[in-house]
Amino acid sequence: MSRNNVFSDGTSNYRYPHKLPDFLYHGTLRSNVERILSRGLEPRWDRPATDNLTSPSVRDYLYLGTINRCANHICRVVEWNLVPKRGIKDNVVILRVDTSLLNKRLLRPDEDWCTSLWDAEVPDYLEDSNTWTFEGRVYPNEDEAVLAATGGLVEWARRCWYDSLAEEESVAYKGVIPPEAITVVASDEWDGGLRNLRARWAVEYSGMTTNREPAEGAVQQETDLEAT
After folding, report:
1. What is the pTM of this model?
2. Would the pLDDT of 171 be above 90?
3. Is the pLDDT at 110 greater than 80, yes or no?
4. DSSP assignment of 105-168, as one string?
5. Which CATH architecture has domain 1-118+157-207?
6. For tag attachment on the chain, is the N or C end more exposed, with fewer CB atoms within 10 Å?
7. Residue 108 near residue 154, CB atoms below 8 Å
């Protein structure tokens, strides 16, 4: 891996102890809520990645962020990726996570933050078997091997989770978040504040979103949502 001078040993650039905000957020689809409130919020594991606009998420992690970060994710992934590409029409939900119920030892930086600073190791290609290897494990295709290498980078930089949260407003979690930590705080069905948050990001994804202008009064609802 290439290293820079600031994070050459994979340690945080911020003084410990790191303090989490009281709440972090996760964007999902309404159809997932019943399962999440029953079993908890889980990494995707063997399920297909939702966000494949740039690269799939690492399968062992789930992702949390600020309310604005979640609005960005919803606009980018749900409206641009899921609906036009897969024909999925579903209501959008934002989940609030009580961070006092998280195990801080399971926090990791978002791999997008990691790869902006360092390059993940390149998996080895085995021409004879047309497979890829990383750290002794064999993968049937390059994408899976690259995901494993990216996960290896995240684990190396795991003490930088606060840097990722402070600088990118997002963090990964290597575990299951229990149902008692989760509350539904906004949905596409009723919350004008959520629509306003998504509209804020529509300019960045111009032409990729079905967003409309926020309804009258949405700004006040947005303020109420951020205060929750």
Report:
1. 0.74
2. yes
3. yes
4. GGEEE-HHHHHHHSPPPPPEEETTTTEEEETTEEESSHHHHHHHHHHHHHHHTGGGHHHHHHHH
5. Alpha-Beta Barrel (3.20)
6. C
7. yes
DSSP characters for 43-67? --TTSPPS--SSSPPPTT-EEEE-H
> Residue range 155-173: average pLDDT?
93
Contact between residue 188 and residue 194 where contact means Cβ atoms under 8 Å apart: yes
Pairing of strands 124-126, 131-134: antiparallel
Domains of the chain: which residue ranges? 1-118+157-207, 122-156
Spatial neighbors of 56 by CB under 8 A, at least 6 apart, are 49, 143, 147
The alpha carbon of residue 6 and the mean position of all alpha carbons in its chain are separated, in whole angstroms, by 24
Mean pLDDT of the chain: 75
- Per the listing, tokens 């949390």 go with 64
